[in-house]
Specification:
alpha/beta; about 230 residues
């Protein structure tokens, strides 16, 4: 582990388990929210789907903040009907937002039940309200993908929102924030948990270009569990 840590930048934080990681990240997010609300009367965060962040959302659901000033966005969505159990917003709503004091008008999710083109345009319009996100959360897939930005997939430049028609995992049709839009963030926090992520983490350490390495914002923090660290 020590030789591994020498390779890493000081913005990699290594945790024994998911709960200690989630508590530390929740506190960091709440601190940024407090500062942002004090300075500019609002706080914007892009949420990520996946299992790795559910503990984080549970902690935030019980925390104190000036929730009226929070604006919630999402990194990507699967093109499935409203309330489908496999939609990212479904599990986020169930875990946190359904019982949150955050005003519904401040929750800006992708309407992926529409046609992809319509949903893309609608979300690009919603994003015009925020120039730069305060926090972007990214959880990494085992192939190094984030949101619905997959290795070796190309998308048009200069779009805030992109359409994916051939996802390696079901469902194939998805809608995602673009690399360019996710990079317009003051803080990018990458959450990496689980042994299945080791191969992608090894690529990240080697400096290989995979989707997660393309998004750093102004400030990058990697929150990683020890179980995701490659065995040297």
């Amino acid at each position: 582990l020590l030789s591994f840590m020498k390779i890493l930048n000081d913005n990699w934080l290594i945790f024994d388990d998911e709960m200690s990681l989630s508590k530390a990240l929740a506190q960091e997010i709440l601190n940024i929210a407090k500062k942002s609300i004090f300075e500019k009367y609002c706080f914007s965060i892009v949420l990520t789907g996946g299992q790795s962040v559910l503990s984080l959302y549970k902690i935030l659901s019980k925390a104190d903040s000036n929730w009226n000033k929070w604006h919630i966005y999402i990194g990507d969505e699967r093109c499935l009907p409203v309330n489908h159990k496999d939609r990212n917003n479904h599990v986020i709503n169930e875990t946190w937002l359904n019982n949150s004091p955050i005003p519904k008008r401040n929750i800006h999710f992708i309407q992926a039940e529409m046609s992809q083109d319509k949903a893309q345009l609608e979300y690009e319009s919603a994003l015009q309200e925020v120039d730069k996100f305060d926090v972007v959360l990214l959880s990494m897939g085992e192939d190094g993908h984030v949101a619905s930005l997959f290795p070796n997939h190309r998308h048009p430049k200069n779009r805030d929102v992109v359409v994916e028609n051939d996802s390696p995992k079901s469902p194939k049709k998805r809608i995602s924030l673009s690399y360019e839009r996710l990079n317009k963030s003051y803080n990018v926090f990458k959450v990496i948990i689980g042994e299945v992520k080791r191969e992608a983490v090894a690529l990240l350490i080697q400096g290989r270009i995979i989707p997660i390495s393309k998004i750093i914002g102004d400030r990058e923090g990697v929150y990683i569990c020890e179980n995701a660290i490659p065995k040297s």
